[in-house]
Amino acid sequence: MPEMYFHVRWPDGLRQRCYSPSTVIEDYFVPGGQYALQEFVERSRTALGIAGERVKEKFGADGSTR
Number of C-alpha atoms within 13 angstroms, CB side, residue 2? Predict the structure, then answer.
């Protein structure tokens, strides 16, 4: 399963490296895009929720391979 890291720049200028266990994050964010905090939270929850479900489908709830 492809995974990816992406960077978030917070309003205070801090830059943070984040992880997604799936490339689905690319469907919800545009490189260099700016989002209001609430929109960012909603998009993040949706994308990372989908990514988590994909991992569960492939590896099971306990993370072991089937």
Answer: 5
Q: What is the mean pLDDT of residues 48-60?
A: 91
Q: What is the DSSP string of 11-50?
A: TTS-EEEEEESSGGGGGT--TT----HHHHHHHHHHHHHH
Question: What is the reported pTM?
Answer: 0.78
Q: How many CA atoms lie within 13 A of 8 on its CB side?
A: 16
Tokens for 42, please give them: 């909603």
pLDDT at 63 over 70: no
> Cα separations (Å) of 44 from 60, 64, 65?
22, 25, 26
- Please tell me what DSSP assigns to residue 57: H
